Amino acid sequence: MCRWLVYSGSPIRPEELLYKVDHSLIDQSMHAKLGATTLNGDGFGMGWYDGPRPPGLFRGIGPAWGDRNLRELSEHLETGLFFAHIRASTGTAVQETNCHPFRYRTWLWMHNGEIHDFHRIKRELALAIEPELFPHLEGSTDSELMFYLALSYGLRDDPPVAVARMVGHVERVAAEHGIANPVQMTVATSNGEHVWIFRYSSQRESRSLFYSRRIEALRELYPDNANFRRLSEQTRIIVSEPLGDLPGAWREVPESTYGLVEPGRDFLREFHPDPV
């Protein structure tokens, strides 16, 4: 499986979360505590927004902990919204086109989990992708295919509905092939203005996902922490597992839940697949 994070808020350099905090994402690439695997060394990626244009994207196939270009970029780039992902392959090839996040125009998508027995239903699932979207599918992962299925089901118009339809479709096709509990996922996706997150598994035993408490609450808990003083009240961080060990700083996203983060508000709601 994989580890990932989303940052939305005051512009920062990604190195602050990738390298400089306790149990940073780079540390998790070597010493994950809550993942299915301790080591996540099958590639990495970072996507970031810097205005209304499509997001930037940097991906590599080596372990994140040893990539000098990732360190260099994260030290000099400044952004208020970025995705970062470290990969542990569930069977597909270690290649750049299989590294997250995935990008389509202004959209980013990343995933932790799998479609169980993906190889048995891959062709049928791929045939449900809209013809105009199919040429943009570059890799061989279930994660990217889920992205293009969600786009086909209306991700650009209504992400919760589109992802519910995507999951429902996967579960229906899997059931037709005798595959039980096919979906395991935590997902983040964004159009540069809003961030949606999803935590769901067919077995109701999803991989871990956490979000940071409101900054004002963290300031009250930790008045001497300089990092909390300089961030805006709109700042949010969503992670596969907590960065550091600050008691009270992180809350778990409930099972079968989706959430929205956007300027001025954020919320969590129940998530249920739609068997289209």
Automatic annotation (TrEMBL):
Name of protein: Class II glutamine amidotransferase
One Pfam family here: GATase_4
Sequence ranges assigned to domain Glutamine amidotransferase type-2 in this UniProt record: 2-272
Annotated organism of origin: Actinocatenispora comari
InterPro entries in the cross-refs: EgtC-like, Gamma-glu_amide_hydrolase, GATase_2_dom, Ntn_hydrolases_N
Keywords: Glutamine amidotransferase
Keyword Metal-binding annotated: no
Lineage: superkingdom: Bacteria
CDD domains, per database record: YafJ (cd01908)
